[in-house]
User: Fold these one by one.
Assistant:
Number 1:
Amino acid sequence: MATLDSLSLFTGLGLSEHKARETLKNTALSAQLREAATQAQQTLGSTIDKATGTLLYGLASRLRDPRRLSFLVSYIANRKIHTETQLSAALEYVRSHPLDPINTTDFEQKCGVGVMVTPEQIEEAVEAAINRHRSKLLVERYHFNMGLLMGEARAALKWADGKMIKHEVDMQVLHLLGPKTETDLEKKPKVAKVRPEETAGRSAKDVVENGEAVGQTLSLMEQLRGEALKFHKPGENYKTPGYVTTPHTMDLLKQHLEITGGQVRTRFPPEPNGILHIGHAKAINFNFGYAKANNGVCFLRFDDTNPEKEEAKFFTAICDMVAWLGYTPYKVTYASDYFDQLYAWAVELIHRGQAYVCHQRGEELKGHNPLPSPWRDRPTEESLLLFEAMRKGKFAEGEATLRMKLIMEDGKMDPVAYRVKYTPHHRTGDTWCIYPTYDYTHCLCDSIEHITHSLCTKEFQARRSSYFWLCNALDVYCPVQWEYGRLNLHYAVVSKRKILQLVAAGAVRDWDDPRLFTLTALRRRGFPPEAINNFCARVGVTVAQTTMEPHLLEACVRDVLNDTAPRAMAVLESLQVVITNFPAAKSLDIQVPNFPADETKGFHQVPFGPIVFIERTDFKEEPEPGYKRLAWGQPVGLRHTGYIIELQHVVKGPSGCVESLEVTCRRADAGEKPKAFIHWVSQPLKCEIRLYERLFQHKNPEDPAEVPGGFLSDLNPASLQVVEAALVDCSVALAKPFDKFQFERLGYFSVDPDSYQGQLVFNRTVTLKEDPGKV
């Protein structure tokens, strides 16, 4: 009788009979929904309309803290919370404010209580969005991405009704463009893609648009704008090849659009168990870039389901690197945020006969054709009791798992959804001793966050069927998973395990050693984030795995630093030069342009005195043919001074080594122009300079065919050269870590964090020109 009463109550909220019966199978959910409905009826004194019922169901299914149920029900019943957007904000608020009492004034402000969005405001917001894109709208007409207009209007009016915004957009666009013509109904022509190998020989600034070269870099966001990749539009998931639909799909997509307003949503979901590398840069650019290009949002979600390997430093480093690359997450979330919901869904999955508790050991599940589980058909009630026992810590690690009943593309049968682990979690402590797997967590977290495009690297293609299956098995919104090829580099290893081996062997200092291709290492070496983003844009997004040469990344670095790194002068291996007829009684102040090609960017001042230091390689007593620098009878100019020096005397030590030179000087405009101008320093600062080369000698150090002894046997002994007594001009005296300079004639350099007061340390980022031997 109680079941019939609850069924009647739930259908009265607007749930279908099937949905109501499925809800009744979930004891915790049905109890919370029953309580919410009862309280709402007491407040209303009448039946509950469908809109209110939908909100109550959303509240009951998503609320983690039952103490807040009455508080939130009163707001829904009194129509103070009347949209899904407000409910989501309210749930987020109570989650992030677990302590009593709740500040109702702050709560209502954060949840839009009392905010009335008038039709006039919606009309004005849509009109403003259309005006911003009017010229493009008139050209592209109905091929224009209308989601952009809705997203901008929604951003301006956070609490507006999504349906009203869409209706207003449709009306104003129709008024502007008129009815659709036959041309409008034609499919938009594809934009020709340029293969990475076809662009490899070009400057990073040379790109192709509509078949013609243009003179500025197209960012990855610009490449992804519109329909270039033919991704589905939000809410049209079912149009994607291979997408699995159910009788509930269209209703779920309709609810999804009401929540998101047709906004593109992506996510970057790293595991917090290592440092991001160059391959992750592509993923960051793709996920954040695609969302931004289409006026959407991107979540940064930590996949923190493996507490044994997670460390706080990795969370911080990942956030830092995302920000360093220039991206701001819409929200930072964690898989652990959803542990309660994930557990409830696992129980529901058992109720539906789609999961079971298994006692096969890990070694029994390995290999291509493991034996089917003898517990696959155990009774539902038995699995429910055993899963609860797992939850309460009654099984040792490895003694029991929860498995899902499906076969994946690669033939893997019944993937594990939950396993027992007695490692405290960095956020939840020892609340849980069972943790969900990636196969179980990934799609459900995407569903909770209403991700529209779940962008994954190619190796996750084998999990696509489980992705669709699990969402559909639980009757929840199902996003679309899209796969793309990984980005790798030659002469590099990026796996966490192998980098740890390099650190243990003393081959590198740590994760941020500038010879590695982790993002922290590239930053320390001095690679600008813009250059990494440009490199990702240049590589593009392909389905096939891409392995690029490091010199292509270095070319992007040079392009950026040439325009952004001010010039200075430094000497690596110094030779003292005494000017015997120095033209002044004291040092002269020389104005040196920060960027010789554009003097509007300013100057810096360096002293020029009777004693200067030059590179030892810029002098030869017995020069070979073609040598153009200082030698007997061959004067050279000193850059920026307007003076030419000519050798008069060579001073040698007891061993015959040249210790210093004596020269005379004359004005550069007072005679024949020299064959060369060299850099120099006077009254310099001493500094340490670290010169880096490739860490490995072979292109593929992990390939046994190329390196039979393993990657540790392929280390380049000359990958690091430290110049401890280098000299640099005093214009850099106040430089801070990560400041970048071009040392004239030497290369681009960045200040290392090892620097301290009175002792600067520089890393060579790249040479001025590409080494032909590296191609």
Number 2:
Amino acid sequence: MISVRAVNTCSIFRSSPPVSSFRFRFNKHLRTNTSSFHYDRYSKSGSGFPTFRFDLPILGHGDVRSYSLQSFVDTVFEELTSNHKRKRQGICSAIKLKTGGEVLDDKPVNQAVEKGLLVEFKKDSERVLLAVVQRRDGKKNWMVYDQNGATSSIKPQQITYIVPGVDNFDQTQISSFIQKAQQNLDTSLLEFAWIELLEKNKSVTPEELAEMIFGSVEPLESYCAHLLLSKDDLYFTVQETKGSRSLYGPRPTVQVEELMRRKLAKEAAEKELQEFVQLLTSAKAMPSNAKPPKTSWVVEEKIRCKIESLEAYAIDACKSNDEKRIAGMILTAMGMGKTASSALNLLIDIGYFPVHVNLDMLKLNIHTDHPDEIISAAEDLLSEPINRKDLTHLKVYAIDVDEADELDDALSATRLQDGRIKVWIHVADPTQYVQPGSKVDREAMRRGTSVFLPTATYPMFPEKLAMEGMSLKQGEVCNALTVSVILHSDGCIAEYSVNNSIIKPTYMLTYESASELLHMNLEEEAELKLLSEAASLRLQWRREQGAVDTATIETRIKVPNPEDPEPSINLYVENQADPAMRLVSEMMLLCGEAIATFGSCNNIPLPYRGQPQSNIDVSAFAHLPEGPVRSLAMVRIMRGAEIDLRKPIRHGILGLPGYVQFTSPIRRYLDLLAHYQVKAVLRGDSPPLSAGQLEGMASLVNMQTRVVRRLCSSSLQYWIIEFLRRQPKEKKYRALILRFIKDRVAALLLVEVGLQASAWVSLGTQIGDEVQVRVEEAHPRDDIISLKEVVV
């Protein structure tokens, strides 16, 4: 780029590598001599620069001479040097430099503060103001009248510039002076000065820069030059400062190029941010049913990165400071606070998140979809057969919740000729299709368990494999692993066997329908009655072995349309002491005891579960009403469960000599591990996994299972509170007093919804009493529920 600036009979010439454009600038405020300029863009000199011819009037004469590029430069530089020397003394006089009669080159010399001077000072970390000095304030400070009409006391250190050539400035003209200065600021002038000074390796003061680019050191021009230099972050840098005087030096070319690159990148990023903010603003304004789909935000890379930064910010999961910075910039640009809740609300407002998004699922990084390679591998497994014992003649009951997708277990029973009851616990057999260490197995281990949330179910296995191959289905021949047990009259195990089998489930019952059938006592459903009888025998026997009854109430919630702003909520509260639930629970425990015995007899490493006897004196809780209050009180003092991978250990709470969870291999990975081990022994092979291998795998799986359990608990709590939030404010709820936390603040169990909360209760009420409460506040996102007792 070639640039020429004519200033008061003095031209400043700048040159840099040639480009296809040429700029010729004139200061419209100053007089200039007329000149003509010719540029042949296609003619190059031997040095590789374009050939120029300038027709300029001879300074002080009327003649016109033609100059070549080189001669023109030499002529201008000679006159510039001469002119610079002539102006030097004038500059020093104008700014009142006190140098002892000498002019000091390239050294900033501080100017004394006096009344009437026009000064720039730093008001605070962000504001710089212009003011007129009024008078002294003490020994060192000065009172000033600033551009905003305010009078204040400042320290000399606050002064950043003293405008030269001013003795008694009219304070009413400060605003006008600032306005004129702003109109004269042309940052492109700095580029010309930078090239000149860089070539000569010279530094410059604001007044010298004013002489160079404006041809004057008048107050206005000097202040303009100061503003250009002090605000510049590209061409110049401060070399030395003394009081209010600074000396600036030109940056090296390499540094300027790098700063320019950064500046352009910053400008591009700011433009990109503004475009993104416009997208967000537009999406926020759209009605709920017309907002952009979530997929539209992740198509373009630059938009996807910003959305992902907001998402990470919303769940406190930013992976880098850059991600946090981007999210903060977006929120600030949107006029929102830089908080996780702000990011969450923004993502909800644009339709990226549903109103009731499950944040815990995002925070815990729960996998909801199976990779394509796992799905493909699962489909390949569906064709593998195995020889099995035919039990299709048995009447088979599968009892589960009504919305169960994966059916792991079913039951059969008969009475033998000697009067004893024989039961069959049929368990789904996923190990027919999945082998230890396979792709599908590794993915199942990574997940650890299926995830059952009010809004959705995320299976441990790919859905097609779980539903079409593994799950039990009514009226169809299904593969199973069957544990058959003959009970003594007191409920203990007399005989047992474990076999690969095929069954044909007769009924798929919900707990409600199974309880209804039991209550009806139909003769044609004698097998169901036998199962109930067997369950009663087992419960009695376990209690004799020291088992502690911890049956309480359990809440289930299903939200069929969670993406809707106001989805429907189906809430069920189930009593674990219900006959059908007791029946299923006892049969599962019976199966677990039989497998533990089988493992012990065959020396099989298995995840044997136990719980040391807590020495719970049940009689100490006899004063509490039977049911949730007593059960929850005993659970609070129980010790944690343990796992032994080599031999059975007593489970004191269940009253069993040994126990292995075995009945949910489609849903729980540790159950699947037990199936691998047992199935190998049934084939006559050694168990595929040693106790050491099981220990490492169990540790990882239990860690993931705890994460999922926490997620399920928080999700259930969220939807119970949301359910309560929607109820009429005047609605009353029954609440059982579980215990007193402090003074009259009690832990309560809301019977109708199965939620534990706290509230102040009246004098005279005791643990186990029932009170009535009303919901004062309910905020599911903040996990807040406030209750108030209703005193009758």
Number 3:
Amino acid sequence: MNRLSPDGGGDDGNDGSESLASPLLLPQRSLINSTSQVALVGANVCPIESLDYEIAENDVFKQDWRSRGKKQMFQYLFMKWSLCFLVGLIVSVIGFFNNLAVENIAGLKFVVTSNMMLAGRFKMAFFVFSASNLVLTLFATLITAFIAPAAAGSGIPEVVGSISAVSASLVVGKAGPMVHTGACVASLLGQGGSKKYGLTWKWLRFFKNDRDRRDLVTCGSAAGIAAAFRAPVGGVLFALEEMASWYGWLTILIMLLWRSALLWRSFFATAVVAIVLRALIDVCLSGKCGLFGKGGLIMFDVYSASITYHLTDVPSVLLLGVMGGILGSFYNFLLEKVLRMYNFINEKGTVYKILLACLISLFTSCLLFGVPWLGSCQPCPPDALEACPTIGRSGNYKKFQCSSGHYNDLASLIFNTNDDAIRNLFSRNTDSEFHASSVLVFFLICCVLSILSYGIVAPVGLFVPVIVTGASYGRFVGMLFGGRPHSSLNHGLYAVLGAASFLGGSMRMTVSLCVILLELTNNLLLLPLIMLVLLISKTVADAFNGNIYDLIMKAKGFPYLVAHTEPYMRQLTVADVLSGPLWTFHGVEKVGTIVHVLRITKHNGFPVVDECSQDDSRVLYGLILRAHLVELLKRKDGFMSTSAESRGGGVEFSAADFAKRGSGTRDTIDDLEISAEEMEMYVDLHPFTNASPYTVVETMSLAKALVLFRQLGLRHLLVIPKITNRSPVVGILTRHDFMPEHVLGLHPLLFRSRWKRLRLQVPRTFSIF
């Protein structure tokens, strides 16, 4: 094995532990990247690893690719579309039964509680309400904490836990869990078969690589959003704008041109979701689904009639956008602080996680049951579209403590499911249905409870709570500015625009949010106003902090690369952030050396260098993956007695031997049994080495390298020297090397002085070099 010294020289010895331990890089460079990997919920997660999206173009791969005929290509394309169809079908069924269960469980709880209140048994009603919420929350917490701590696996704990959490009257949503459920379903279907369960069909083996699995997971995420909101086009845009880890906002258009096939497959999956949901909803409209009715799947069809607005309405819409940006950024600030506080509690153990969730449930029940007593009783409107007050069933006009013929407007918002509350706020021709004080109280309660509920150990989402919070804020603003002469904006339309502004201020997405809201309200005439408030709220909020997803990923320590480059990256070169030591292999390497390096390091890629017999110089041959080395050592077919034997060790291997397994257990170096005699043998690495890895020169700016690394979806980026007479490779850049915590940790003076000044002078742009 070849070690590179700081001056570019090398040591050709293959033995000796002392030389093996010599570091590669300069002494002042950090040897460890200590980016935090602690999850906010205290889950015992594994260190985050990138995936190998880049195709390893070694001799084995090329031989397999040349051997594929038209039949194999047809099988490959057919399986891609078939799996997308299955993803859409399964996710749509899961989404339907998810909503069906929530509507029936939560509806039954509200019906029983309301019947007890009609009988004057208020204490018993509160006990039943709080106890049922506590049991449902406890169940969601237990199934998450013990069965799926990271909400991973098959997705079944995610679905069941989400049903329990949403039915427990927590101010949480099911959109986030549905996205994860869709990703889980896609991940399971894309495992490429399983020897354990006898799924060894050759057609499935095409998907034993990270690139195809990533594309299928993207389709699953889009299907999850489509199933949660019945928004197929919005689901596709959401997956492209937010879910694809290495696609930036301004690179969406480029991605569409590069990967148009992925766009069509995602659209196909969401179209399947829309068709299946439509068919299932038609069955439920006949009354065969219990309490599940029009309020089941989220579809706020409240503006099917034509609406008009004028130039005089623009100032109030602008105000909505500005206030939504300010409130959304402040909401993110509070949520981040609460999540960090929860982290300290959850780190104490599982018992503390469960106790925290139970306390939040009890506090929520007390607030939801107690606050409506402060509301006033309103006479039922004569033109109500449903029975008023609601008695003996789930409905929107809650009688609560009021007398006959009256309803409690505050209870109609609080003592209800989130979907029905949003529908009440969005509804038109209801300007006199709610008092401004009731809407303001509801807005404050939604803010507090959604922030407190999101950090518990349960599958919970944030999309619906942000919508209901923004809708209440928008309706309150509409009550303050509504009723002006020459204004045609009613309170329901203000609620829609308020939800859009709050979503833009918190989540900072624009295109996908705009389309999702249009699909939710079923009216294209709202497009100009929604676009306006989204753009304004996002612009205002960006001046204060990042979007909520970026803040959470940063707090969890996920090595997520943002779409833009920071100004300080233009002052640094890639050589300034390299960390070591770096280990390289010869083209023909000793087995004992490979085993030793794999045992003392956790690196996933190693440069392979060759010696030139003419001038004793060394050249970079390529990059070999850790998984491929482990497979070579496991098979032992390519072992040679001497290093002088001819190449050709790869003829006994096929691409299927190096295909990446699914999410099951993988072989590690510690699982291999290699004798002392085999340790002295050699193996030819050339046929298994990617001979064309991506490389950059050591003088390239860090900003330019980040753009290249992110847009190509790389895991390793080799750094080569500027001067040709030096060592053939200087180091390897990985995702962690671009993280601000790592870069500013190596250069603290840049953070303390020049970086602060540059952030005030240089705008944060999405510049592409």
Number 4:
Amino acid sequence: MFLPHMNHLTLEQTFFSQVLPKTVRLYDDMMYELTSQARGLSSQNLEIQTTIRNILQTMVQLLGALTGCVQHVCATQESIILENIHSLPSSVLHVIKSTFVHCKNSESVYSGRLHLVSDLLQALFKEAYSLQKQLMELLDMVCIDPLIDENDDILNMVVVIHSLLDICSVISSMDHAFHANTWKFIIKQSLKHQSVIKSQLKHKDIITSLCEDILFSFRSCLQLAEQMTQSDAQDNTDCKLFQKTLKLCRFFANSLLHYTKEFLPFLSDSCCTLHQLYLQVHSKFPPSLYAAGISKAQQEEIAGAFLVTLDPLVSQLLKFQPFVEVVLDSELELPCELQFPQCLLLVVIMDELPSQPEDVQTLWCTETQVSEATTRVSLLKAIFSSFEQCSGELSLPVHLQEVKSKGQTEVAVTLYQHVCVHLCTFIASLHPSLFPELDTALLNAVLSANMITSLLAMDAWCFLARYGTAELCAHHVAIVAHLIKSCPGECHQLTSLSVLLRRLFFFMTPPQQVEFIQKFSPKEAENLLLWQYISFQALPAELRKQTALEVSRSGTAQCRKWLSSSRTLGELESLNTVLSALLAVCNSASEALDMGQQTAVKEVGSQLWALLNIKLVTGQPYVQQTLCLLLPLLGFFIQTLDPQLISQVITLQTSLLKSEPPDHVRLAVLDFLSSLGKLFIPQAIQDKILPHLSSVFALLLADRNWLLEQHSLEAFTQFAEGTNHEEIVPQCLSSEETKKKVVSFLEKTGFVEETAAARVERVKQEKGTFWEPFAKVTVEEAKKSALQPSAKRARHELPLEEEYRSALQAATAALEAIELLLQKSPPPDWLLTKMETLQERIDKLKHHVF
């Protein structure tokens, strides 16, 4: 009533600064009185009921008076200088927040007696709602001159924005539209006054709150979608609520996108939050193993309305070095559910980089020491490392939707296909200055102990060989060949390099293959190490015949040399290399060998076999390797082998299996047995061979190792289908259990049915068990573990879970202590305020539990 009679330019000095602080104190006192009296509220106690209702009515009137003040300022001033009314926004925002907090906590404050005051609480909320709307209109009229260093005005506006941010955290679960409008206003004012307040704003708080609200609304959206999927009947209310929540998700995401674009230079300490937002969202969305169960239509709707905004966010952050350092941190350790999203993020980044300048590509693709404790790995290294951690997603496998070529519909591809295709596309567009980084990353990945990672690197390398020049391919083949020759002995790195050499050799041009043969001539014994790994099918017909003969002649000569020497065990390693090279010729270029050369190979094989005995084989690993090479070599010539030699081989196998040899020896025995299927054994020697043969099969079919059991069944089936000696087949089935096993294998029955949901759950448990660093399995523990794969594994608890439990128990104990104190004596004046602050912190924490 007094305002119209006052000079609007002196309102702050004459009225607001004098009255509003007292108004705030009065309102706080009423709020305290209200909360204190609420404990005694009941329908029988009319005195307290009247007191509480009178307080609420007074508060409604007070809010109305404040609304009148705000309206008067709006009506009398076209442009507002904040310094002239600075007490008004701060006081109003304090009162608004206090009101919303009380309304939010009303169920706990009034307990089961809320109905006695619900009408006035509703009026109070509406009045506070109107007051905030009016205040936002006023603040929209505020003008801050960017040329004048008005520190007070700048600080006042910053305080206003952060006060509205606090209100957002209170009303987020109360009124979605009001919550969104408040955020819209915060973003608008931040951008309007960007030039003067950008250095003063607490950007981390704004980004964190916005990300929390995105995750909270996204979780609500998924919960509604899941309810709709599980419910047979389509509830129109649920559908509308789902659509409304999805729009809220999109609004928040677009707000984040806009804010990030404008204030990017100030967001270095928010990069971790933005990174986590991307990972958290994708961890809860199909095809993640940890995703909610929602329909295909809802997936497409959410992806089209909300997820599409996350990729532009990544694009904005590509040039921002702090974001690069967060994503590529060498010490980054993610829980199981975030490893797959990290892999997807890296693929998105990889797709974006070709359109970026060279300096941005270099930023992502080079390894750098950020500090003494932190290293930024290259994007390529991170891709392989992240891919390796997605064991569950690869083994299931999960499928992603992808368009193979423009204009075509999307098709489902596995994670392996998805990463491989995008990696090869990235390699094709990589800047030449980054080729050394590519070479390093590919070689390190090929040498990885993880088989699937090594395979991915080989596929990418083969693409590079085909996409690049012929000279580059030849250069790479030569490097791999030298690496193989420099390996000290059998190891997983040698295995991977040998597979890579075999594959790359197919991409060489004939002239380059000739150069390779000249450089690594098979006539030299030291080069047979390489030729054991090369498929002769990669060579043109004439060159294949010539090279196969050279390897065969050189190999048989080396075998004869060993046979005529002192035959020491120390020389067996080189002999095994020779036998392996001869076996490679037989497997991929047998047609190139004339009868004389075939006879020569068969003769040295027979002579070497004659030197073997059970004691040597069981006691010497190198001799076991020799046996494993001789068995398939002799099996290749099975139709022309001396029956007496076949008898000796099977007799030794019988004795050997009884001594429980290593798995690779038993697998070699199986390969030889499967080659006997089409062999006709002469009548004169059947009594010596067939009983031992049935005994060998019986021993192998009874093996409990699941891998050997599978190979045994396959070898026995192949033998039984091809043999002319049908009478031996029943003799191999030594027990009822073995008979049932074979029948189930032939009829493809006996499998345990597993639902899709059960399979996903099992894969998640296996991933939790095997993933480093949460699952540490020592060599000794691995040796003690059963060879049979476990159908189910216990879920592994995260190391921090115990700390969570401990912290929660401490918090519960503290609250119980306060409850006891309240029973003994009246609470101090400050307790309620502190408890409300605590409640707000709990509400914020709830957003993180997602």
